[in-house]
Amino acid sequence: MAIVRPWQQRAQQTDARFAVPSSSSQPTITASGSASASPSPSASPSASATTAAPAPAGWQPGFPIRATFYYPWFPEGWKQQGMNPFTRFHPGLGSYDLGSPQVLSAHIKAMRYAGQQAGIASWWGAGTTTDKHLGQLLKATAGQQFRWSVYHEGEGQGDPSVAQLTSDLTYLRDQYGRDPGFLRIGGRFVVFVYADGNDGCAMADRWKQANTVGAYVVLKVFPGFKGCASQPDGWHQYGPASAHSDQSPYSYTVSPGFFKANEPSARLARDPATFRQDVRSMVASGARFQLVTTFNEWGEGTAVENAAEWASPSGMGQYLDALHDALGGAG
User: Fold this and answer.
1) In angstroms, rounded to a whole number, what is the distance separating the alpha carbons of residues 277 and 272?
2) pLDDT confidence of 331, banded at 50, 70, 90?
3) Beta strands in 194-288 (DSSP E)
4) 75 upstream amide cis, omega within 30 of 0
5) CA distance 26 to 42
6) How many CB atoms neighbour CB 179 within 10 A?
7) Residues 269-316: tens digit of each pLDDT
8) d(CA 244, CA 263)
9) How far apart are CA 222 and CA 225, in angstroms?
């Protein structure tokens, strides 16, 4: 039976891909960039330490596009599945609330430091918590060389109808697709699509039929995807229990680790040195989309966001440092 979580509901509930420390108090962000040793609100990279140069009017990244999967379900996601906090780690920003402009600014700064040009925000539908936060993310990005796409999560819960998918795409186009902060390729707004283990070419067929609004659709791969009659604009893999996934020329994805809060052992053990090598391999691949799973999925323990467990002198953490060193980036 599917579990309905706070960010999935229309105005409250999420998916089995995140979680974190809890604490209803708000994080204090300082310019020191130091990491906290506990999940209580504490210091991390400051959003105000430097002022980024404004982005050129109409700026959009070109290929290869570097982007990271992002989870806009906090503070709701800190408490779930009977655990509080639902994480094995100690984020540098503590148990943050994405309603805070300071937190959003710090996140965008951290991703830009890591050479990321876009965030792919988990999206559970119109009126959900993630939908509410998407508008806040776009507002926080105004004037910066950073863009947002969405990760359409519906396929992970079943097989949405063509009519439902068309409705979702129309909503995204009308609400966000024309926002300067939304990722576009060739003028088309970009939508990444999650899938479950039972999906196949029929999913690609449904999305082709549903896309009457000119979206640039990037589907999740499945066995035999290259042979499907209906081909989307791109393909990607979301499987952070593997250190890397080479789906060139479409995409290349790297993951720092996977240790879910309620599991006894890691599915993928963390090793910053291995992650560095995987990032270099990703760059060398030349893939169109070069992706990170994830920025802040704390419940599954796949985050590259700074934490006490992998703090570094830069204040950004070893994983963001590895991305910065390979990709460049602001800061």
Assistant:
1) 9
2) low
3) 216-220, 234-236, 244-247, 251-254
4) yes
5) 9
6) 17
7) 999 999 999 999 999 999 999 999 999 999 999 999 999 999 999 999
8) 22
9) 6
User: Model confidence over 207-245: pLDDT tens digits?
Assistant: 999 999 999 999 999 999 999 999 999 999 999 999 999
Q: How many residues does the chain have?
A: 331
Q: How far apart are CA 165 and CA 173, in angstroms?
A: 12
pLDDT of residue 41: 33
| Structural domain boundaries in the chain | 65-327
* Dihedral sign computed on CA atoms, order 107, 171, 178, 192: positive
Short-list 85, 76, 104, 100, CA closest to 8: 76
Residue 53 — very low, low, confident or very high, per pLDDT cuts 50/70/90? Answer: low
Return the higher-pLDDT residue of 24 and 252: 252
Contact yes or no for 220/236 (Cβ under 8 A): yes
pLDDT at residue number 249: 98
CA angle 36, 81, 102 (to 5 degrees): 35
The stretch 18-24 carries a mean pLDDT of 29
pLDDT for res 198: 92
Distance between CA atoms of residues 183 and 165, nearest Å: 19
3-state helix, strand, coil in the chain (%, to 5): 25, 15, 55
Class for the domain spanning 65-327: alpha beta
Rounded to a whole number, what is the distance in angstroms from the first to the last CA of the chain? 45
User: Is the confidence at residue 82, as pLDDT, over 80?
Assistant: yes
Closest CA to 234 of 212, 216, 210, 254: 216
Element (H, E) at 140: helix 129-140
Q: What is the DSSP string of 189-210?
A: EEEEE---TT--HHHHHHHHHH
Buried/exposed code over 240-259 (b: 16+ C-beta within 10 A; e: otherwise): beebbbbbeebbbbbbbbbb
